[in-house]
Amino acid sequence: MPDVLVFDVNETLLDLAALDPVFERLFGDPAVRPLWFAQMLQLALVSTVTGRYADFGACALAALAATADVRGVTLRDADRDAVVRGMRELPAHPEVPAALDRLRDAGYRLATLTNSTQPVADAQLAYAGLTDRFERRLSADAVRRLKPAAEPYRMAADTLGVEVGALWLVAAHAWDIAGASAAGCRTAFVARPGKPLDPLTPAPDIKAADLTGIAEALLARRAG
Questions:
Q1: With b meaning 16 or more CB within 10 Å and e meaning fewer, what string describes 112-143?
Q2: What's this model's pTM, rounded to 2 decimal places?
Q3: Per-residue pLDDT of the chain (224 residues; tens, 9 = 90+)
Q4: Which letter does DSSP use for residue 218 in this model?
Q5: Closest by alpha carbon to 11, among 146, 152, 189, 142?
């Protein structure tokens, strides 16, 4: 059976820097965008740990409200809509399409697993022109537990018809790598700028600066 690669979407495949002009307009500083996204991840983690489920979209809007409150900014409905729309209209990182094609042509099965809700995930991949490269597009919202909880990774393995140990999780987030590893997956870390690994969790099986490097490492591993 071909190896199965499951990709995180936001920041791993898609470039959130496309939102910087929106945050510059709303907050006067594009550097607020990664701070907002970090706040969103924190809220998602709290939701998961406490068992009080909130979908990723709700976490995004709550994080935006918290960010605006801290910075003394009053947001209008149109401002919130601009962020929501922007999340659906993110480009792929430049190397992503060719790297995915290379892996698919080499016989790997490709899927996605994101914390975004299914409609948002589908819209994101369609906008980036990546939809047809994946046999399945999965959302953690289906099990009402966000990554890095174990349930989304196990759901992905079940849906794709493989044991969880046969699944590779490819992500640019240390917390995603840690969650997948704890669930029993193999892992590949995309070390995007500003994305360090967590030294308190097991190292990934593969690490590279971008998806081209991940593809080369996977192919070399298979050849070896």
A1: bbbbbbeebbbbbbeebebeebbeebbbbbeb
A2: 0.96
A3: 468 999 999 999 999 999 999 999 999 999 999 999 999 999 999 999 999 999 999 999 999 999 999 999 999 999 999 999 999 999 999 999 999 999 999 999 999 999 999 999 999 999 999 999 999 999 999 999 999 999 999 999 999 999 999 999 999 999 999 999 999 999 999 999 999 999 999 999 999 999 999 999 999 998 87
A4: H
A5: 189
Structure tokens at 116: 């975004």
Distance CA 47, CA 34 (A): 20
20 close to 88: Cβ distance less than 8 angstroms: no
Beta bridge partners of 206: 188
Backbone torsions φ then ψ of 170, nearest 5 degrees: -110, 120
Measured between alpha carbons, how far is 35 from 8 in angstroms, rounded to an integer?
A: 20
